[in-house]
Fold:
Amino acid sequence: MTLIPGDGVGPEVAEATRRAVDALCAGVEWDVHDAGLPAIETFGTPLPDHVMDSIKATGVALKGPVTTPVGGGFRSVNVALRQELDLFASVRPCRIYPGVPSRFEDVDIVIVRENTEDLYEGIEFEQGTPELNKLRGYLKYMHGFRLAEDAGVSVKPISITATKAIVDYAFHYARRNSRAKVLLGHKANIMKFSDGIWLATAEERAGHYTDIGFEAMQVDELAMWLAWYPQEQDVIVLPNLYGDIISDLCAGLIGGLGVAPGMNLGHDHAVFEPTHGSAPDIAGRGIANPIAMILSAVLMLAHIGQDDAAARLELGVARVLADGKVRTADLGPAGPPATTAEVADAVVAATDSK
Ligand code: NAD
Structure:
């Protein structure tokens, strides 16, 4: 198994997770590689080739978060991994575990996010560059569009092929996991040729899965329903950008980013990682919540067929959360907050050994 600790709080939550998985004695062997800021320091690039080679060889990676500079600097390691390994589906189960403080009960939503296209594809034109000036001229000449002189441009491609793949995945997921309905978010009323394809393709695919309910909804309305009646939502399929935003919204419904796991799936490879980022505001202090990454490891174990180990680890996490005595600060503990390492200790102690 490839293990990428990442940067920021990544190495802290990765170490806690590694300990929790090793305690299961499930025979997981780690091939550990740096990516992100530590890889830049050592190798001069955030994603060295040998990291990609390791994932291609093992087929499965558990990954901590990696910082992406805002507005410049190197390109996102996460986006590069998803595109190069064709990890077309990001799946983020958002379930409230008993004992976790939240305004809601019984939330059990699964976000299925398209991972390769949309505004994340990286087709961007920097303001003031000759390329953007050419594009501006073309748009004006061919279509009469006026692009502001001081604008930058990001392009949003959405294809029938990628939409079909993710919508089919969402229906298969619903079937496999006894889910009743797939809800599709879109903005086809505004972006007729990108979200328009997304909606029309999904409606066509839904006809092939008559055993599963289907509904399409504008994503702004969907956000309103999620904040109001999250208990009523089931599997939600979204294009890349809306999926990113709505997953964090759903993390907020279930106790926050500290308890929100995720996985990125392709046909040949899978990368498991928490929904949260590198949390630079708390990095290096040993106080990050490792539960999101430990639950990502639960998803990983289930993916590789270690169902028993996955169930035991999830039960260990559930016991620690229900008990409530050992909690990091983000979960609002009654007493002094626990450290990352103390939560890992508690999970190991609460997990049934084989
Ligand atoms: P973030 O998720 O890192 O942090 C948002 C808030 O949640 C912060 O207040 C942080 O302290 C808190 N938080 C996050 N994880 C936590 C945990 N495990 N325990 C307790 N509190 C936690 O989001 P951000 O600040 O927008 O992003 C920071 C960096 O991470 C950026 O460079 C961003 O691009 C990157 N990022 C990476 C990934 C990834 O690697 N998959 C995902 C999201 C963001």
The longest strand covers residues 89-95. The domain at 103-117+157-253 is CATH 3.40.50 (Rossmann fold).
